[in-house]
Amino acid sequence: MAIAADLGVTDLGSRILKVNHAGEFGAIAIYSGQIAIARLVARDLVPELIEFRSHERRHREIFGAELARRERRRCRSYWLCGLGGLVLGLTTGVLGRSAISATTVAVESVVLRHLEHQLHMLRGRDPAAVEAISAITEEERAHHDQAALHVDEGGLLYRVLRPVVSMATESVIWLGMKL
User: Fold this and answer.
1) How many CB atoms lie within 10 A of CB 27?
2) Above 90 in pLDDT, residue 7?
3) I need a labelling partner for 47 at 20 to 30 A (CA). Which of 20, 30, 90, 142 fits?
4) Spatial distance between the Cα atoms of 57 and 68, rounded to a whole number of angstroms
5) What are phi and psi for residue 100, nearest 5 degrees?
């Protein structure tokens, strides 16, 4: 893969962890924005969103601890992920319950695909990175699956939001790997 060719194997795990750490900060910001608006438009989703955000905070801590152990700084895209996540969370919150859940499904679909690819690339090369990534995968899958229960996949809002949110998520990951 191009990412592996651009980075040495040793640096690849650290780069991935940096991007994942920034991504978790973005996810916290998405949920924070959605929680703020959901308190007005989708109160029933608030406990679920708070739980998801608590998981994302723990995930960020896992990646942060591994970066500290490696004596690596956070990704240059960290604050961009936070700002973009907050804007996405507030915007989709305003669009309502369905948009909130559609956003989680779209983001987590991309994240899960990347996590599986990362595990494949790092397995046997960077055990500590594999352990950190493996520690969050099931909760990310649970977020996807739980949010999917609230989504009408045939609905116009979902059909519009999913590709836009997926493309934005892919772009942020790509940019993070390049910075």
Assistant:
1) 29
2) no
3) 20
4) 16
5) -60, -50
